[in-house]
């Protein structure tokens, strides 16, 4: 019986950690949307900031493919984000 209780509590703990992590990501994305609302960013820039809450980085080439845009547009978008220290 004790080993079953240990197994059950370990599984419950694992699920709670997963729910916590998912909740934190959702909150971060909501905070990004709230904070950038007044910064005059375009939808691509907002989406890439949300993408970065789940990923450590993004290359310009990935950005180009993600939004089907030119490298010049990607450079502009990313430089605007960098200027704002986001």
Strand and helix layout:
Layout: H1 2-36, H2 43-54, H3 60-67, H4 71-83
Helix pairs in contact: 1-2, 3-4
Describe what you observe in this structure.
With 86 residues, the chain is mainly α. It has one domain. The chain is built from four helices and no strands. It has helices spanning 2-36, 43-54, 60-67, 71-83. α1 (2-36) runs antiparallel to α2 and α3 crosses α4 (71-83). The model has no long low-confidence stretch (mean pLDDT 90).
Task: Find the count of extended strands (DSSP E, 2+ residues).
Answer: 0
SS summary, helix count? 4
In terms of structural class, how would the helical and strand content be classed? mainly alpha
Detail the poorly predicted runs.
none
Average pLDDT works out at 90
H-E string: HHHH
CA-based shape: elongated
User: Largest sheet, described in full?
Assistant: none
Q: Give the DSSP E fraction (strand runs of 2 or more residues).
A: under 5%
Q: Gyration radius, to the nearest Å?
A: 19 Å
Q: Distance N terminus to C terminus?
A: 52 Å
Number of domains: 1
How much helix, percentage-wise, in residues? over 70%
Short description, anyone?
The chain has 86 residues and is mainly alpha-helical. The chain has helices spanning 2-36, 43-54, 60-67, 71-83.
Q: Which structural traits does this protein have?
A:
mainly alpha; 4 helices; 86 residues; elongated; single chain; 79% helix
